[in-house]
TrEMBL record:
This is Uncharacterized protein. It comes from Lentzea pudingi. InterPro entries: SAM-dependent_MTases_sf.
Amino acid sequence: MVDTARWTVLAPLLQAATAGRDLLDSTLRGLTPGAVIAEVLREIGEHDVRLDLRFDGHTTSHLRTDAGVVVTLDLADAVRGLYGTDARPWPSLAVTTPNPDLDEHGMAGWFHSRKGLAQSVQELLSALKPVRRDLGELAVEFGSDKWGDLHWYTQHYERHFARLRTEPVKVLEIGIGGYDDPDSGGASLRMWQRYFQRGLIHGLDIARKNVTGPRITTVRGDQSDAGFLDRLGRELGPFDVVIDDGSHLNEHVRTSFHALFPHVRAGGLYVVEDLQTSYWPSWGGHPDATPATSMGLLKSFVDGLNRAEVGDPRGEGTYLERNISGISFHHNIAFVEKGLNAEEGGPAFLRTL
Ligand SMILES: C[S@@+](CC[C@H](N)C(=O)[O-])C[C@H]1O[C@@H](n2cnc3c(N)ncnc32)[C@H](O)[C@@H]1O
């Protein structure tokens, strides 16, 4: 369904980036250095400097190899800068410049020719250790409508996702955006890729999409096809986060939840956006958000949290009752927490007092 060959390099890198230096070095040794470097270069893009990466006594040159400034770093530091949480300055950094002869412009010309070097070096180092920014800012930068343009969701995402931000998460978002245009959409996938610095970000859309990114993959498929979603979950999951921002038709939202929630990891979250359609009949909703609507399904989980108080206090309950440990509602968006809900209920004698 998806070409996951690259993940065999990326996934261990993302895991090891926050480990101690010995473990990171041994992970790098177990991978092909060229493949690791390819991931680093994909992440940082083009720059106007030469980047020399050292690993295991070897140095290789990248980016603009004829540039007037050379930035040298250990490969492990580059990986830690990109995917790690270490705020220290670069322990292995060296910046050198070829020493051009004075030309007819003399000393003044020599100094003038070096003016842009600091900026080029800084741009590269900023790309190698990106500053963490608020999700609202990222939404604006990448053009996601999750902040503004009818929705004010990022404040809620920030609150619920903060604990996962630096983890090597797997995210699946239903709905890439841009509808039938293969070259448009992907704003939120790019935002998640930047927010989750160690995240693998998967997007699903019914339309063909050309969205790419160093840690983004896209899949074409229909969120109303439960069998397809189950196969997707087996192949790419378990997910730490699933976000439903697809068709918003009530029937589709319910089908997707039932098919994908089993593929959410314990401690993970399933998010449903645009719940206003639960109240709109033309989308399969009802003004009272009755049980057959998306909100109807989500509301039933609230009672499910306390099911041990009405049935057998030590009974098993249904799969959803046992595996939903929390739910938060905000305007038009809900966060369902996956976790064991197995506390026993109050004893029978108390119920009849
Ligand atoms: C609101 S846009 C997603 C926006 C994107 N998540 C963002 O925040 O930038 C909804 C997308 O869902 C897709 N979609 C509609 N019906 C779908 C279905 N049945 N299965 C999967 N995707 C669907 C549309 O093609 C469209 O691109």
